[in-house]
Amino acid sequence: MNAPEKKIGAPMNRVDGRQKVTGAAKYAAEYDLPNMAYAVLVGSTIAKGRLSSIDTKAAERAPGVLAVITHLNAPKAPGAKPAGKDPSQPQTVGSALQVFLDDNIRFNDQPIAVVVADTLERARFAARLVKAQYAPEKHQTNLEANKANAFLPTQAKKNPKSGAADYQRGQVDAYKTGALKLEAEYVIPTEVHHPMELQAITAHWEAPDRLTLYDKTQGTMATRRDFARQWGLPEANVKVIATYVGGAFGNALHSWPHESAAIIAAKVVNRPVKLMLTREQMFTMVGYRPYTWQKIGMSATADGKITAITHESIGQTSTYEEFVEATLGQTKMMYESPNLTTRYRLAALDVGSPIWMRGPGEATGAFALESAMDEMAFLLNLDPLEFRLRNYTNQDPEKNRPWSSKFLKECYQAGAERVGWNKRQLKPGALRDGEWLIGYGMGVGTFGAHRGSSKASAQLLPNGTVLLQSAVTDIGPGTGTAMTQIAADTLGLAPGRIRFEWGNSDFAQAPTQGGSAIVNTVGPAVQEACLALKDKLRELAAGGNSAFASAKKEDVVLADTHLTLTGNPTARAPYTDLVKQAGGTAVTVESKPSGEGQKVSMYSFSVHFAEVRVHELTGEVRVSKLISCADAGTIINEKTAGNQMKGGAVGGIGMALMEHAIIDDRFGRYVTKDLADYHVPVHADSPAVEVFFVNKPDPYVNQLGTKGIGEIATIGVAPAIANAVFNATGKRVRELPITPDKLV
Amino acid sequence: MATNHEPDVPANHNEDRRTFLKQSSLLTALALVPGPVVSAAEAKLDERVAEAIEQVPLSLKVNGKKLKLKVEPRTTLLDLLRENLHLTGTKKGCDYGQCGACTVHVDGQRVNSCLSFAVMHDGQEITTIEGLADGDKLHPMQEAFVKHDGFQCGYCTPGQIMSAVACVREGHAGSEEEIREYMSGNICRCGAYPNIVAAIQDVKQGGQKV
Ligand code: FES
Ligand code: FES
């Protein structure tokens, strides 16, 4: 039998493509359970203070209403804790926030009631009849006004080795004494994930102590853990299903108030309850990329060697959770600089908690760092690509150890060629096409190549299909497809004979999808489960056929209907016999990182090159070319990986040119309330992004050689566009987004 | 000082009507019955009142099937499809006509079903993503989306495909630029735009009947 063609690397169509194009894929609010009830949240209309009274009578009397739940009548989940009452002991982000525990208001639109009715229309109508009165206190929602109160995060105080702690190499703030120096401040406004699927959950108490959640989450096991704890249940009694997740980009990395509310509501009405947020509520209670102020000081020698960098940042968090991200990570390791200082601070405001948004802090930090690199190159009268090459790091200057792999120079070259970098002029505003000014810019990105431990299970079905299961979710990158390809190669089977099932907390343990770590982590587990299955099948076959007893697992072949051995076609064990044996064929394995990675620094790298056209009179910016190049190790599926890169680049266009959530500080309330106020890129904003992968395996991260794509797809895009705008116009915009008013 | 910050609740005619009916008729008769019984009766009455005045008959043809329905006038076409008919392929991405996730065809025209009340479509023909394929055979646009990987999470996809089919039929798929312009009402937050445009061009250039 000929082994099927290798599937790893092939541009295979998605295994769930048919479901997605026919509408058969079911998302969290699309399960049809008998006797479904609908829940609608009522939010506070002040940002801080107390709820002095709440009148639910009219709502209760409205037709079809089953319950109106507030802190006055909500059943208390045994494990529920009020959110950080004592500001000196803030929770770290990651634990579930309970609702309806007390009368405290911590942010505007905080849920103060949930109305449950037999139809969505009736629940929505009745929710408007709930009347609340407040005792407001003075709120703070503006980071700029609160910079003076910024503090070192608790985790950094406790652990000086934490990534959030102050970092120093060489002299402190040495840039200040440099001959050639720059100092600049950069601002990223609050940006909101806004996946197309509104946050939704269907909560169903199947018994008084058994809870099933169809939920929009990136981690079925994390969600199970959170709500099992909240309700004092064994984890085995809570099941979380998230087969299809309509995008998330980080906002489903946390358990949110609406999830708690739906679970309480389902408990009270003793029916399955469906709750979907409105687009307006997506601004207020399911996280966002925090408003962040940054300052960079940089000095260099006249021949373009960086001598010192100081990078400071203050990010926004809530009063009840400390949200920390790696804003300054890239600065510590991207360029050679003998002197380097970083300071990371938080300012707590009366807002909902932020949460990692694609590329998270690294994307925020890269906007400042990569803009500053461009500014310094300009000061030096150097090509920015040449300036980066002169400060290229051949080993990690932060940890003083080699890179596990780094092919960033290959990316530079590929990207520069594709965008036509040679057309770029050092002098801004030198290229034009009629009224359109043309400019070129680049931005570099990096993100840790993380790998954790994970399990995977595999079993043979009587028809010769191999069923693999993992609790992991697929929020869009094509995890299911990549895993199928890995399994197909490991078992020597056509992908059609693999069935990979995901998105269920009852399946084999897997981490939350995020941090570009899923293929790195779950991929090896799938591969090892497949090998273990081969061995198990060989063992089972050995009982009836001695040829299998002495065979090596590498020689085991899964033919169409039976197991056989390479070079020994007479060895035959029919699948129908194997699956009948006691105990079945199922195997579950756990795959963990080897200690090898401790000796090296493991990162994915990217560079993005942009060509922009800026209209001279209106300040309109069009991204006419975007080339994204990545050193992400082995590429499992060129088609889905390429798509992920393009999507990250489009996200970067949003960050650079339009995304901006605005709070009216007088009321502490968002004035951007929908997608007409908060702009995200549409078709017309997006060029045909070109993608280049180095596609060389990393020898350390795992046996597959992968490093991760999701974050580096976005990190570095916004500064590439900002730098291109400078090159086109001579205007340096240090506060995103680059809207026309900043250019005319 | 306590202040009242409740949002404006516009006068609601349904509620007024219901309150009026309750006060003027049966409730007076029930006034002497003990409290808990009154509220139970009141709830039942509410149901009957609601049934009588809130439900409107509606005939629709959905994906080729004739349906006779009763719906509340405030039910959007989108919620009717998703919640009452369980055709969840049509997605809710904003409910305000800003994202295109809910795009369906009404008598062949692309429409944001969240922006349109179900009762406005009496006698009309609705096609949703579930009605696009010919049995097991995918529509050429669905095939092209799979081939070009014109999606990631898949949530905007039914809307993109319904819009894409209309875009080609309308004759607005002549160039990449034109496709981008005429598809801009369909947001894809995953950013699969380049692949969506490639899929539409493929169908257009392939000359298949859409
Ligand atoms: S849900 Fe209808 S346009 Fe967004
Ligand atoms: S595929 Fe996720 S929003 Fe378009």
Automatic annotation (TrEMBL), chain A:
It holds the Pfam family Ald_Xan_dh_C. SUPFAM superfamilies: CO dehydrogenase molybdoprotein N-domain-like, Molybdenum cofactor-binding domain. Gene3D superfamilies: Aldehyde oxidase/xanthine dehydrogenase, a/b hammerhead, Aldehyde oxidase/xanthine dehydrogenase, molybdopterin binding domain. SMART domains: Ald_Xan_dh_C (SM01008). Keywords: Molybdenum, Oxidoreductase. It comes from the Bacteria. Residues 22-138 form the Aldehyde oxidase/xanthine dehydrogenase a/b hammerhead domain. GO terms for molecular function: iron ion binding; oxidoreductase activity. InterPro entries: Ald_Oxase/Xan_DH_a/b, Ald_Oxase/Xan_DH_a/b_sf, Ald_Oxase/xanthine_DH-like, AldOxase/xan_DH_MoCoBD1, AldOxase/xan_DH_MoCoBD2, AldOxase/xan_DH_Mopterin-bd_sf. Signal peptide: none annotated. This is Xanthine dehydrogenase family protein molybdopterin-binding subunit.
TrEMBL record, chain B:
Residues 56-132 form the 2Fe-2S ferredoxin-type domain. It holds the Pfam family Fer2. The keyword Transport does not apply. GO terms for molecular function: 2 iron, 2 sulfur cluster binding; metal ion binding; oxidoreductase activity, acting on the aldehyde or oxo group of donors. Keywords: 2Fe-2S, Iron, Iron-sulfur, Metal-binding, Oxidoreductase. This is (2Fe-2S)-binding protein.
